[in-house]
Design brief:
Blueprint lengths: L1 H67 L1 H9 L2 H9 L7 H7 L4 H16 L3 H10 L5 H17 L3 H11 L7 H16 L2 H14 L1 H6 L3 H11 L2
Helix pairs in contact: 2-3, 3-5, 4-5, 5-6, 6-7, 7-8, 8-9, 9-10, 10-12
Length: 234
């Protein structure tokens, strides 16, 4: 009997707690209903505004900017000093990378233009400007972004800043690009050698062998693997 009474009392308490919770919830909603409806409406308006902005403005601007990229890319590919300056600055007929980057700031194409502007400055030997624009390039297009990190690593290597060079190379090698990833892995291995970290140098060379074997053979990495093994005591 005592057990049944306890169970009945516990169920009654649970029922009362549940009813109290529901009552409090309804009371809270009734008290603040105008605020709650206002917040929900504001969220819906913001979401709708973003969708409309993206569809009718941002996509249009990005399409315009993309169409403008063809000529400066052609100038960049030409590679001579006059063409590189045109790629950056443009002329009376065509915009250059700098104008596209500045005039279409919130578009994906503006981001890409910053990367290409960095390459132009690099080819012109203006390495401070190159570093500035390459660092502005955000991770939206993965392949270009990884290549950009490798280029920044090269610039830091030239400056003698091994720690930063290694940091950027390590970002770059997360790509699976069959061309620049093995090259960057080799550069990273060379930097580890300079620092006397033969274990990490070996890991870099073996990653080329494991993931990019055809490039491993072309680059003649086998001799570096053997040397790193000897130095690492393996």
């Amino acid at each position: 009997m005592a057990t049944n009474e306890k169970l009945g009392s516990k169920k009654t308490e649970e029922k009362e707690e549940k009813e109290n919770f529901i009552t409090k919830t309804i009371s809270f909603f009734n008290k603040y209903s105008n605020i709650i409806y206002g917040v929900v409406l504001a969220i819906l308006i913001i979401a709708l505004g973003y969708i409309l902005f993206n569809r009718f403005y941002l996509q249009k601007k990005n399409h315009e900017a993309s169409a403008m990229m063809t000529q400066p890319i052609n100038w960049l590919m030409a590679g001579d000093t006059a063409s590189l300056n045109l790629a950056l600055e443009g002329n009376d007929e065509y915009s250059g990378f700098l104008d596209i980057a500045n005039n279409y700031k919130i578009t994906k194409t503006s981001n890409t233009a910053k990367y290409y502007a960095g390459l132009c400055y690099l080819k012109l030997g203006q390495k401070e400007d190159a570093m500035d624009y390459l660092k502005k390039f955000k991770k939206r297009e993965d392949v270009l972004w990884y290549a950009c990190q490798a280029t920044i690593g090269d610039l830091y290597d030239e400056q003698g800043d091994e720690s930063k060079a290694i940091s950027y190379y390590e970002k770059a090698i997360k790509s699976e690009d069959p061309y620049f990833t093995p090259i960057t892995l080799f550069k990273l291995g060379q930097m580890y050698e300079r620092k006397g970290d033969w274990k990490k140098a070996l890991e870099s060379y073996q990653t080329i062998e494991d993931k990019f074997y055809s490039e491993f053979q072309k680059m003649g990495i086998g001799q570096y693997v053997e040397r790193a093994k000897n130095q690492a005591g393996k």
